[in-house]
Amino acid sequence: MVLTACGRERPVANAPESGGSGDGGPTSGGENGAPALATTGDIPVGGGKILAQQGVVITQPTAGEFKGFDPICTHQGCPVSNVDGGTINCTCHNSSFSITDGSVQSGPATRPLAEKQLRISGENISLA
């Protein structure tokens, strides 16, 4: 058996194809044919929702402000686990990131989550 400890950070390529806490969200098309990932009502103010299969975390830091982030922790590539208390959390090594800008709130991660551009069309949220 081989065990590895937290080590150097390494770049992370893509989000996993499956898993996570999202149910897939709405499928009706957004602007420019982009499928809707969620509706504005699906995302709690001061919180967010992880859509791992779609490769995005959507947050709503303040009412009507929606942000998108990569769902993979920049520390060692674990998928983030939950959005709670104003942070996006990775329980692999207890890193947390701001729901407002993806910045590191607590380590061992030292790099922010990559931002993803969202498009809001009516109540539908899709990737831009």
TrEMBL record:
Keywords: 2Fe-2S, Disulfide bond, Iron, Iron-sulfur, Metal-binding. Gene3D superfamilies: Rieske [2Fe-2S] iron-sulphur domain. CDD domains: Rieske (cd03467). The keyword Disulfide bond applies. Residues 19-32 have a biased composition (Gly residues). The keyword Transport does not apply. Residues 1-45 are annotated as: Disordered. Residues 35-127 form the Rieske domain. Transmembrane segments: none annotated. InterPro entries: Rieske_2Fe-2S, Rieske_2Fe-2S_sf, Rieske_Fe-S_prot_C. This is Rieske (2Fe-2S) protein. The lineage of its organism: Bacteria, Bacillati, Actinomycetota, Actinomycetes, Micromonosporales.
